[in-house]
Design brief:
This protein is of the alpha+beta class and 170 residues long.
Length: 170
Amino acid sequence: MLTKKVCVRYNIERWYSAISLKNGVFVETKSSLESFFRIVTVNADLTPQQALDATNRTQHVDSSVLTTAPMGESGEVKVEFIKIGRSVTDDEIELELVGTRPATFAEIAKANEDDPALFDTIFNCTHWKGEEGEWCYATFHNFFGERLVYVSRYGAVWDDRWFFARVRNK
């Protein structure tokens, strides 16, 4: 029986199972993506800079990238934070997490504003395509007690510690 932990983190529905016979015993192995969610109320009328300022984090920001950050629509939204658990590129994230879209900048900033203590322990991020089609990103994390946010262009690989902020497609 597949079960979920009812807590901050839980296993989402994407399960991989394999049944094999070892020493005369059937063994089932499973792995899953790790995930948790937050419901946030977004004010998309804020500028990206205002949303960023509300997080009270030390900012390392490329302002030309910040101005391209999508803000989405105002209202309540369920933001899922999904950890793939292996190194992936931006394009691989989109292939891996079908049925979801990257959280807007307003959505991830609001989640980090609402629960800074939780996000002190979790490296979380979102990404979007910039004006020239390049991947841009916002990352939120804590480094030796300092709450940080980075906004810039990217093009490398995300390691296995990141939780990607996503919203399920309607």
